[in-house]
Design a protein that fits this description.
This protein has helices at residues 2-17, 31-34, 43-59, 75-85, 94-104, 112-128, 142-152, 169-182, 186-195, 203-215, 272-283, 304-315, 377-383, 397-402, 423-451; strands spanning 160-162, 196-200, 222-225, 242-247, 284-295, 316-323, 337-344, 350-355, 392-396. By secondary structure, the chain is α/β, with parallel strands linked by helices. It has a nine-stranded mixed β-sheet, with helices on both faces. Helix 1 (2-17) runs parallel beside helix 10 (203-215), helix 3 crosses helix 4 and helix 4 packs across helix 10 (203-215).
Length: 452
């Protein structure tokens, strides 16, 4: 509903600017036709319209009308169709739908103040998804996206890609970074729009991402609903290459059946993060730069994982790895993660590591105490004046090669703290140990009685 309201407000703006503009949404399905009147359809009639007419029609939208000659499709129509292709109405009360619609009618998305205020609300909505079960996997903490983007610093005219863009956090950070420095005219804004690209497999984050980009003044977001990994690796050529990649690819999950066959035989795996690393190396042009988030599991391991890391370090200059605490992505994941910064075209000679520390007195991050961008002030101060200290150390490539291309290298300046437990925890551990011992004694007794 939010997306439809935003699209309708954008259509109204374009109709004023261009006498020849025609919305891709049929007149009877436009927000203004069925939703704008606060005393309009409601109850069962509203539910029947949404379920029986609105969603099915948008899911089967004609994408050839008004198409450009280049590809035979109307890009705006494709976006609307793809958004609703994976959308279902779970609201079973038409009266409540009307109440929601009337609340949205209070917002004018063409008014900068309304749009800015709603943008903050929308960001909060995306952040709340972090603790909403599986949906949390699509949201990277804002502090992480902003600091990675600021360091890589995409500029106007550079092609920016996130091949697993989720709700669009990295893409919007890139947009804001470029706007802040380089966008001074409508021509600049149009140029920016053409250089931001993303792809997302799952319908919900795809819809949220498109809406997010529209809220950031991208008129027709260049975001594709599909699996980035489901493309022949060798088919990615010069015309597909980009200047900047910012991404937090999905990890800890297996890819769809057969997807690994798109990749060279020596690199085939079903671990999504490893295949995404290969994919991003392929998409990045020589001289291009990237910042991506990888789990500890992608920094170590033998076999195909080791071969992928070796290829990575020989094809790219992996100059910096930031070690983050396990709790950065809590509450929905406690996996240790690492932003990696690299450029394509030159091999790695040495890697600098930076260990991010929790704020003093804080034991972990949580929903109520998330990571803050201000915590990276020391990293930014160190970035261009590098020296070893209790948070920073460097490792030559020779040592990494000797260690099986293992990138999971601990801070040499910090001794591993001995695990400490409360009395209650120690008693619980002791109780568990006794239970396991009893179980083993019982099994041994059974074996002895059987043999006798």
């Amino acid at each position: 509903m939010i997306t439809l309201k935003i699209l309708d407000d954008k259509d109204a703006e374009l109709e004023l600017l261009d006498d020849d503009y025609v919305s891709v949404i049929p007149p009877d399905l436009q927000w203004r036709a069925w939703a704008a009147d606060s005393e309009g359809i409601t109850g069962d009639a509203m539910k029947e319209f949404v379920d029986g007419t609105l969603f099915p029609s948008l899911q089967n939208l004609d994408v050839s009308s008004g198409a450009s000659e280049a590809d035979g499709v109307n890009r705006r129509a494709v976006l609307v169709r793809d958004i609703f292709a994976g959308t279902n109405n779970y609201m079973k009360n038409g009266t409540i739908i009307r109440q929601v619609v009337n609340k949205l009618n209070e917002i004018d998305f063409n008014a900068s103040e309304d749009r800015h205020t709603f943008g903050d609300i929308y960001e909060s909505l995306l952040r709340d998804l972090q603790s909403a079960g599986n949906y949390g996997e699509f949201y990277t903490p804002r502090a992480i996206t902003e600091i990675m983007t600021e360091i890589v610093n995409p500029r106007l005219g550079e092609k920016v890609l996130d091949p697993a863009c989720g709700t669009g956090g990295f893409l919007t950070s890139a947009i804001e970074n470029i706007k802040r420095q380089d966008v001074h005219s409508a021509k600049d804004a149009r140029r920016l729009e053409k250089t931001i690209r993303g792809q997302e497999l799952k319908p919900l984050p795809f819809m949220l991402c498109v809406t997010n980009l529209i809220l950031h003044d991208i008129e027709v977001p260049n975001v594709v609903n599909g699996d980035s990994l489901n493309r022949e690796y060798t088919s990615i050529g010069a015309k597909d290459r980009v200047d900047v990649i910012l991404a937090n690819p999905p990890f800890g999950a297996s890819v769809s059946d057969g997807v690994e066959t798109n990749y060279p035989a020596s690199f085939r795996t079903t671990e999504s993060a490893d295949l995404f690393l290969l994919l991003m190396m392929r998409y990045l042009k020589d001289g291009g730069r990237a910042a991506i988030v990888l789990p500890d599991g992608s920094l170590t391991g033998d076999g195909v994982k080791q071969r992928i890391r070796e290829e990575f370090l020989k094809e790219c200059n992996v100059h910096t790895i930031v070690r983050l605490p396990n709790s950065v992505f809590q509450p929905y994941a406690s996996v240790a993660t690492n932003p990696l910064f690299f450029t394509k075209g030159d091999p790695t000679k040495e890697i600098w590591y930076w260990e991010h520390k929790l704020p003093e007195g804080q034991k972990s991050y949580s929903k109520t105490k998330p990571i803050q961008k201000s915590e990276f002030a020391s990293l930014l101060a160190w970035w261009n004046k590098r020296h070893e200290n209790e948070q920073a150390w460097r490792v030559p490539i020779e040592r990494i090669a000797e260690g099986g291309w293992n990138l999971d290298i601990k801070n040499p300046f910090v001794q591993e703290a001995e695990a400490s437990h409360t009395t209650a925890e120690l008693l619980s551990l002791l109780h568990g140990s006794f239970k396991r011992s009893d179980s083993l004694v019982q099994e041994l007794g059974k074996e002895l009685s059987t043999s006798a």
